[in-house]
Amino acid sequence: AGHVRRPSKGGSAIKFKMVDIPTFLELAKDNTRAIALIVGCWVVFFASNMVKAPQCSRMYWMQLGGLLVLCTVFTKAGATTIAQKASGTDSAEGVLAWTPRTLWLYPLLSLVAGFLGGFLGIGGGIVIG
């Protein structure tokens, strides 16, 4: 569904996969809370960056502290969502098993990778991957 074939120079056809809207909608229906958390996090950070306080002012530090608190809240809500989905299911080989340990370790390692990526000027994909 949604494939387009175009001939190439070698005689074989190149396959382009088009957008699969029905599959996306089904995945979105099953993951509504996770998608809402991601969108909510983006909206909060976008809004806070649009309303910048003067640098190093009291309001600046309050805004920064508030964002750190919101990061913690979004991380905790995400961990709760993952734990609820993972409860009672066995993880397949090669898939991360979500245990109480990995639920706090993964965000911690992501934080360290983000810090190192920003501090050293390297892409986060290089640090995490």
Q: Concise description?
A:
The protein has 5 helices and 2 strands, in the order ββααααα.
Give a structural overview.
This protein is mainly α and 129 residues long. The protein is 65% helix and 8% strand. The chain contains five helices and two strands, in the order E-E-H-H-H-H-H. The chain has helices at residues 21-30, 32-50, 58-86, 100-120, 124-128, and strands at 3-7, 13-17. A two-stranded antiparallel sheet has the order 1-2. Helix 2 packs antiparallel against helix 3 and helix 3 crosses helix 4 (100-120). It starts with a strand and ends with a helix. The mean pLDDT is 83.
Low-pLDDT stretches are none
Structural class determined from secondary elements? mainly alpha
Radius of gyration: 21 Å
Report the total helices: 5
- The separation of the N and C termini measures 32 Å
Strand order of the largest sheet: 1-2
Helical percentage? 55-70%
**Approximately how much beta-strand content do the residues carry?**
5-15%
Number of strands: 2
The rough form would be described as extended
* Average of pLDDT: 83
**Multimeric status of the protein:** single chain
Biggest sheet, open or closed, and with what strands and sense?
A: 2 strands, antiparallel
| Element-by-element helix/strand order | EEHHHHH
